[in-house]
Amino acid sequence: MNVTKTLKRIVAAGLAVAVVAGAGVAAAQQMAFFRIGTGGTAGTYFPIGGLLANAISNPPGSRPCDQGGSCGVPGLIATAVASNGSVANINAIASGGMESGFTQSDVAYWAYTGTGVYEGKDKVEGLRSIANLYPETIHLVARKGAGIKSPADLKGKRVSLDEPGSGTLIDARIVLGAYGISEKDIKPEYLKPNAAGDRLRDGALDAFFFVGGYPAGAISELATSAGVELVPIAGPESTKILADYKFFAKDTVPAGTYKDVGTIETISVNAQWVTSTKIADDLVYGVTKALWNDNSRKLMDAGHAKGKAIRKETALDGLGVPLHPGAEKFYKEVGLLK
């Protein structure tokens, strides 16, 4: 989905609420707000978050679903909020700054268990899952002519690893380590994909990492305007990553996903929607039910290429943390859980 259109929908929803409240109609129906922490506006989390926010929202005064209106949770106003990504979203959920958010399955697991990047930190024991969403592909994007054919070629190069608080930064470090490279061996920068793309286009950057569903808007635009190369993450180093970190899986970016880029082997993690035990069971039940209704299915199929990969049949695959009781109730009702 076009980011501008997504933002317009979110703003329009907010205006609709203001009008309804001004008319006094909202008094007849309890109103709840449900924020979804996403990622940078040039990535995949943000447009997907806009789609899901639209699907589960049903502002006070809206027409009911059976009258052609919203099929979301009655009285709910959901918004997609741009953020630094997985770690930042989990931290916001833990502090109460967000009701929910998207995260990579590896980051969720580390936060819940106090391992990995959360080693020595407080466990986020209240973290709970709503659904597994889709595979997130690790992209290593290189400037044409930079001579980068493998992550091993990044030594001495100017490389963006994404911002602190992002899952991309964590996974970039894992990839670098598998190829025998540390941040001391490169000239690291810590930029979101849109800023990294601008610098790569200007010749001020040689490569950048991005973890997200393909096609990613920032990379598509860059491939069209300046041309890029995707670097494979494959071979024995990739095999070792898969052996050491069970939440990774083999993945392939099909030819033509980005202009003039052929088929590329890489690895991926899962994108998951998480929340907190602090959020009421009834609300999470309603959100989960609204996520998987027929109206939401149409929105996801039409709204983004990765929306088609968000399927109820895979909603419980590879969850990094336990289900929220409200979500668990729904999945039991539809027979996905006993």
From TrEMBL:
CDD domains xrefs: PBP2_TAXI_TRAP
Signal peptide feature range: 1-23
Pfam families, alphabetized: NMT1_3
Classification via SUPFAM superfamilies: Periplasmic binding protein-like II
UniProt key word Signal: yes
Tree of life domain: Bacteria
Keyword Signal: yes
Annotated keywords: Signal
InterPro entries referenced in this protein's UniProt entry, alphabetically: TRAP_TAXI
Matching PANTHER family: SLL1037 PROTEIN (PTHR42941:SF1)
Name of the featured protein: Immunogenic protein
